[in-house]
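tool=predict chain=A
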Amino acid sequence: MINCSHVQKNADVMHELPVVRAHGLLFVADPHVAALPPMQRLEGYREQVLDKVRFCLQTARKQDLVPVFLGDLFHWPRGNPQGLLVELVEMFRPYMPWVLVGNHDKYLERLTPDVSLAVLQTAGVIRLIDHAGPVFRLKTPAQTVLLGASPNGYPLPAFFPATDDASVIWISHHNVGFRDFRDKAIAIREIPGIDWVVNGHIHRPQPSEKKGQTTWANPGNITRLSFTKRTLARVPVATVWRPGYEDLERVAIPHLPFEQIFPEQAFPVEEEPEIL
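tool=predict ok
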C-alpha cells in the first residue's frame, strides 16, 4: 500500500499535472515487442507485433483516444537491435503514447539507462510512466478524469484523496487476484477514491469485477505468447474507456490464425497461467 504521506505528496503536485484533451483512453496491454520470436512463436513475430502496435496507435488517432500501454512494451529489456528501436521511434513519434513500466522492461528489476525503454524516452517519442502517483488529467467533452499509475514494483494506493475530477482511473502492472488467479498477492477490493484499476501483466483476459466504488479490469496481452488451448480460442484486443462506460470496450486487433504463429504439436497436459 502507498502510505498517506506519499499520497499527500501526490495531491500537493496535482495542480501541475499535464492536461490531455480527447474523448477517452485506449489501453494496450503487454505487446512484448521483440526482433526474434519469443517462447514458441514462429518466424515473422517482429513484423506481426509491430503491425498490432501500429493498429492500436492508428485506432487511437481515428477515435480521438489517448494511447496508454500497460507495461511490457518489450519482451527483452535490452539488447534489442538498433533497427527495431529506430522503427519504434519512427512509429511512436506522431503519437507520443504513455507507456507504463512493466517487469520485462527492466533489467535486474531496475530501469537502467541502457534498457530499450530508456532509449525511446531519450528519443522523446514516449511519455514514460516510471513512478507511482497521478500522471495526467484527461479532459473529455463530457467530464474531466484523473489517470494515475503504479508501475511494476510500486504498490497500489490504499485510497486516493477526493478531487474535483469526475473519475479516477489507475493503471498497474501487478499480480492481481482476478477470477482465474485468486491466489495472487493483490486482492480485488474497493480502493476509496479510485473508480477504475486497469491492469497489465496478466496475459489471460479476465472479466471485470466491481468492489464498492472500484471496478478492476484486466484486458489481457495483445500478443499471443502461450501455446495453450485458451490461446487458440482468444482474439487479441485493445480496450477503450470513455465517460459513462460500465465496462471497457473491446477492439479486436487484426491477427493471423493460431496455426500460422505456433508450431504444429500437441498441447501441454497442464496449461501454465498466462502471467509473464
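Confidence is low (pLDDT under 50) at residues 1-8. The radius of gyration is 18 Å.
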